[in-house]
Amino acid sequence: MILSRWQGRLMVVLQPDHGVQTGLIAAAWGSDDVPRVEDFVRATTLAARHHDDGWAVWERHPTLEPMTQQPVQFHAVSPIEHIAAYRAGIARAAQLDPWTGLLVSMHGAGLYNDRYGTYRLAELVEQELSITEQRVVAEFLTDMAELQQRLATVSLGHAPATAAPDDPLVRHHYLLLQVWDRISLQFAYRHAADDIISPLPSLFGASGPLCCRANGEMSLTLDPYPFAVDGAVFPVRAYLLEDRSYVNPEDFLNELTSAPVIELECTTSRRR
């Protein structure tokens, strides 16, 4: 559940809706400046679409933050709650396609290992886990490593020569998923603010940054520009709620159910 303030209201973007937008970004990916996906195209797009579906389990009864009496922000949910829900999403993704499951498993694991050493969300820099949480995370990472080896073997038709996340093609697709995820979050969470998304992976040379620059309301200039059509729009569904304290999860969910639904038209453009 992605929470922010928008036009004096509490804006809520559910994680599966964030996934829909991420899937649209993946499906449109590729331009003269940024290569399109050539392998496992459908399965990789499915991974983008379903990478956060596990959150739907938690969103059915979200924990409220004691100080605000609003749902806990997505990056602050306890691993004990998050991992239990995320396992279900990974299992479902693997049923769609082994490659999809592999990438979604890596996405889930990556939330606890700094996205395989490539990025740490600023809000998590000072995060400290309890001993119990550390044990839950360690067990999850071990289970995911074993699952990833199995899914990579099925997908590639042979056992990878390395740990699955270190296979060049697997890692390339995983890093693309992180870029797509972060572009969506630039809209749904950061409201099209300036940022640098890195690494922007390449199978043909060194990775580089994707520069995001604010270009008006819910509009970003991207450099290099990764879509074939300049001005590509990627809508995301959001709910506008009263920005208040909620008595309990049921109170919040009742408000969410009756809240106005909006489609945020998130626009991208080339640097001029």
Briefly, what is this?
By secondary structure, this protein is an alpha+beta fold.
Proportion in β-strands = 15-25%
Distance between the termini: 34 Å
Shape: globular
Structural class: alpha+beta
Strands of the largest sheet, in order across it?
1-2-6-7
- The percentage helix is 40-55%
Rg computed from alpha carbons, rounded to a whole number of angstroms: 18 Å
- SSE pattern: EEHHHHHHHHEEEEHEE
Largest sheet: 4 strands, antiparallel
Structure, explained:
The mean pLDDT is 95. The protein has helices at 15-27, 41-50, 55-59, 79-96, 98-110, 114-117, 131-156, 168-188, 249-258; strands at 2-6, 9-13, 195-200, 208-214, 219-223, 236-241, 261-264, 267-270. It is globular, with a radius of gyration of 18 Å. By secondary structure, the chain is an alpha+beta fold. Helix 4 (79-96) packs antiparallel against helix 5 (98-110) and helix 5 (98-110) crosses helix 8.
Descriptive key words:
4-stranded mixed beta sheet; 272 residues; alpha+beta; 4-stranded antiparallel beta sheet
Write the layout of secondary structure elements.
Elements: E1 2-6, E2 9-13, H1 15-27, H2 41-50, H3 55-59, H4 79-96, H5 98-110, H6 114-117, H7 131-156, H8 168-188, E3 195-200, E4 208-214, E5 219-223, E6 236-241, H9 249-258, E7 261-264, E8 267-270
Parallel strand pairs: 5-8
Antiparallel strand pairs: 1-2, 2-6, 3-4, 4-5, 6-7
